[in-house]
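To: structure subgroup
Subject: Chain for Friday's discussion

All,

I'm putting the inputs and outputs inline so they're searchable in the archive.
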Amino acid sequence: MEEQNNKGFTPDYINILLPNQIFVFGSNALGYHTGGASGTARKMFGAVWGQAEGLQGQSYAIPVDFGKGIRKDTEVKASVDKFIAFAKENEKLFFFVTRIGCGIGGYSDEEMAQFFKAALEVKNICLPKSFVNALKGGEVVYDLDRFVNAQDSETYTYADALNEIKEGHKQGHWIWYVFPQIKGLGHSYRSEFYGIASKEEASVYLKHPVLGKRLRDITCALLDSNNPSAFNILGFPDVLKVQSCMTLFDLVSPNDIFNDVLEKYYEGKRCEKTMRRLGGREEKAKNVVKMSRLTISKDCTILLSDYQKEVKMEPIVKAIYLLYLKHPEGIAFKCLPDYRKELADIYQKIKPFGLTERAIRSIEDVTNPLLNSINEKCSRVRAAFLSEVDPTLLEQYIITGKSGEIKKVMLPRDLVIWETD
């Protein structure tokens, strides 16, 4: 996890902590940390078997389960008060309180939240959103300060992000808090912490006097870029995250600049996962099958740029495909021996640590027209694209041609983008 300058809410999923961060969980009275948050505390954060209360490793136990459905509110309150006092005395530690007691403990979020009322004012205690909402009388609370603080004080600020977009090349790690996406698309701490929970929160974000203006400004800068490829500007996988962000805010504010980004860089296609999470449905007009540009990166990654999909192939298959892609005039199988050196050079770009005996043998086999190796490799190219493109467009991307004649990749070369060295 990253150091935080604001409390925010406890993430729904925590799998890593910084040295000063503590995982606060509900324990049974015997300290048997078996399942749920207690199991996570034992397996990942140093909780001690048989210790029902207090600091242990990077976790802190609060006993809330006394067995057989027995509730001891007085004892729970005393343990919570003891925890809050401990947090106040240890200001250098930051405590993430989970939804303790709300499972086997038998408490509702509203009931358990009352024990933590005093924790609202403690700067190094972070509570679950459900607890905070309950303590504020059911009012929906959106912690947008987490974005403002990150944009102003993280290693990569909003100003850095805006400059990088204007320069046409993202370099820093700021995507989560500058182009926020719907919560639940990723499993990292950042994606959870900076995830937008609902359309309502996204609407409040867009109306925020600082965050709304900044999002519009950087979106406009993206639209004004002379680079026609979002992949080239943002890289992978951030190009997908921006598509998710634009989809989210397009649902909140239709026919706005967010739609313009989707039209310019994504062929009008929305992020399907975002649409599903928000109960939206892609318009048929947005799902018209269109041919994607094919980007070959410096490290020979093959990406369907407009679909935001990588086409994966084993090295020798990829080398054959790139050889044919470099020769739009086509190559007959019987002429492949003449291209053996060029194929070896391509292979070494894919696998830069030298040619092994096995690789040399594969290159010799695949360029030998008397063997079936080349037909088998072309079949693998077909299989790689078959899972990524619409069947009606498949023939444009694969190595094809009549038996005994020149074989080629039919894709128009204005759709092929080679990243320069």
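Points worth raising on Friday:
The CA atoms of residues 328 and 408 lie 6 Å apart.
Residues 1-6, 281-288 have pLDDT under 50 and may be disordered.

D.
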